Structure prediction request, 99 residues.
Amino acid sequence: MKKENLGDACIEFSFKKKLLAYELNKKLNQVVETNESTTYAIFKKVVDKGFCEHYFEESSSGPTRKCYKITDLGRKQLHLLKIAWSEISEKVNSLIYDN
Prediction:
């Protein structure tokens, strides 16, 4: 899986609910093994592109937590990504299953 696709996964994960940075890292590692420095670089790129934003949330049980949530631009990008993925998967499936 390419790093660009990991950024797409971050957008998808953050679409469903706000996520803490460590939760996003954990979810990405369920898909592909990455180290923290790689995933945080991916998070930064997604934020820099305006697809997600981060903010800090106070915690009663420890340090301030960094959270991510999707933006309106991220929702539009996610919609385009899903259309593109659908088109690609249809073509690959036709190659595999239609002989």
Notes: The CA atoms of residues 16 and 57 lie 18 Å apart. The chain is about 65% helix and 15% strand. The chain has a mean pLDDT of 80.
